[in-house]
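Dataset card, provenance and construction

Sequences and ligand SMILES were collected as paired inputs. For each pair, a complete structure of the chain with the small molecule in place was predicted and serialized as structure tokens. The example below shows a pair involving pyridoxal-5'-phosphate. Curators did not alter the output after generation; any descriptive sentences attached to a record were derived from the structure itself.
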Amino acid sequence: LNGLFLRVYYLSLEFYMGRTLQNTMVNLALENACDEATYQLGLDMEELQDIEEDAGLGNGGLGRLAACFLDSMASLGLAAYGYGIRYEFGIFNQKIVNGWQVEEADDWLRYGNPWEKARPEYMRPVHFYGRVEHTPEGVKWVDTQVVLALPYDTPVPGYRNNVVNTMRLWSAKAPCDFNLKDFNVGGYIQAVLDRNLAENISRVLYPNDNFFEGKELRLKQEYFVVAATLQDIVRRFKSSKFGSTEVVRVDLSTLPDKVAIQLNDTHPAMAIPELMRILLDTEHQTWEKAWDIVTRTCAYTNHTVLPEALERWPIDLFQNLLPRHLEIIFEINRRHLERIANLYPGDHDRLRRMSLVEEGDQKKINMAHLCIVGSHAVNGVARIHSDIIKATLFKDFYEVDPHKFQNKTNGITPRRWLVMCNPGLAEVIAERIGEDYIRDLDQLKNLLEFVDDDSLIRDIAKIKQENKLKFSAYLEEHYKVKINPNSMFDVQVKRIHEYKRQLLNCLHIITLYNRIKKEPNKNWTPRTIMIGGKAAPGYHTAKLIIRLITAIGDIVNHDEVVGDRLKVIFLENYKVTLAEKIIPASDLSEQISTAGTEASGTGNMKFMLNGALTIGTMDGANVEMAEEAGEENLFIFGMRVDDVDAMDKSGYDAMEYYNRIPELKQAMDQIAGGYFSPDQHDLFKDIVNMLLHHDRFKVFADYEAYIKCQDKVSALYKNPKEWTKMVIHNIAGCGKFSSDRTISQYAREIWGMEPTPNFCIYLWLFHKKNKC
Ligand SMILES: *Cc1c(COP(=O)(O)O)cnc(C)c1O
């Protein structure tokens, strides 16, 4: 029963939940009853579902992971809470206007949100600014500005286990007396108008994926969620301990036995100095005691090695907004560096590298370093990524504390990403191996028994074709485009980012186009290539990549020689609900990041589970997917991490590839010469210049291998039976990528608890026994 009464707090600035209605029905086994009931009322369940707005409180993989984890934690019966911000505006809606991305505000709460319940009785104050007084009675943070944090609770039902957990999202509310203290003539109206300033904290999600933007409002958001959440955690700890409110002082030294705080990236890193502040300044613990409690309670998940994504906050911002926390961080750093100096006398460069404070024109706090020092566990999100952080980004830290570093390969919830979005496939699987695989995804390996079974091959191919027809109809209705449902659906959906290399996909499209034009009568494998994803509004290159994709589509799709052998579609406004529609209809999944750049990926797993084959590099979780399904069942190509590292040393010369490979040269010359932008020949000059002269992600170095690999994909697609057998090997190898497995490992190896799926049954028996 170890850990039965441990509470897990998953702190995240993002929860990319999508819709809730169908997920609730699936997890509560109400889907058939609701279908029947709505039918009798003359309503159609699917139409009703389509009215629901996505809760788009996330950017991409990191936010969706938090949402999958909530489902798995509830389904495994863990006493877990998700804590985040109730953004009034989630990730923007993407419109494509004349081929360009245009952002529109996501007013998702306009018609209300039936899944949430405001809990004003649990409102908490959060302090900002002010100054620090060191008095004989202790440290005081005074003259602060207060913003109230109002919690909204959303239920998180487990899969058919009678557990319902809570996601608690905080909304900012100005106090009644906000700006009214120095009230003067004419000041009242202004003071009421200024309430907006405080309430702006929870106004909008920052739309950057894998990119750090050092804005004060963002730092306010990060501290806001942390400060409100920690008050909740401490209150709940104290009240659960004594079951009453009369106890004035409760010792927090057993906190780490009862509470685990998981930090989803460094975004909630302020939990570390904030918990220190509570323990030191309000609980009056010694530094040593407080530090022991903090480090045993907190754990940190790293999500990226890209330097532009790492949070480094300028000290001036901190000094102004959170002066007491800055003092605490300095003291954490002083003690940390003292320890390192003792271990490595005279190694000043190491102290500089490992410091929480980065020197330079502008001093900055390195939040990842703060998280490592303040946590008992640090994990990467796929094996290769966890190895990379130990060898590069956090090498020095790994050397002094190797026991802290772990791997937790990401996963996805099979409820949303199979049962809900692909009921046909879920049913075909259940007919062969029963339904238990939905809780225990490893059982998918039992499908291997049927890999040569013609009836299974037929059923799987049939479901895929049905999904493709359904998606084609959806595209025609909502996007007014007609596609050939018998073509291969070749799909790359994810945030638009140079490291994800949508440009490599573009070069393949142009190459195919040129080949078809050259030999129109050859037996080409028809493809519909679909690319979707949002670009951060301030990311110029990413927005230009979208423009390039739409421009290529405009030329290719209207070329009569090409016909329906090749179509290029940009899928507008990719989000969770669109993922649920496109992924079950995909044949080929594009996972083609430069080796060493994609920490894990989770889109890759969704496609694999839904019967698409993967073309991908040995990056992120692709490596483990190949291991689980057999490398011969994926289309793996290109440089490995070691090759990329070697090339970084020897130098990457894009011009050499350009001059040597005629098809690459032709494609680049077309982009550069205005073939795809007849009205503005130099439209793509920034992309061309980048690819030729300063491409950090080495697109050309993988071009040849990618094209050859795509040729193999096309050849196999001509043999539907062999293709579908390979699909079955992939589905059978998916077990590892359930977020239930991921969460079980977090529970055992980081939180120190045994997941107990029968927790409720146990509690119920316990309750009965004691009652009677
Ligand atoms: C799963 C998911 C992602 C993450 O995709 P990657 O290919 O792993 O980057 C991003 N956005 C949405 C809407 C998703 O569902």
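Derived descriptions for this record:
The radius of gyration is 27 Å.
The chain has a mean pLDDT of 96.
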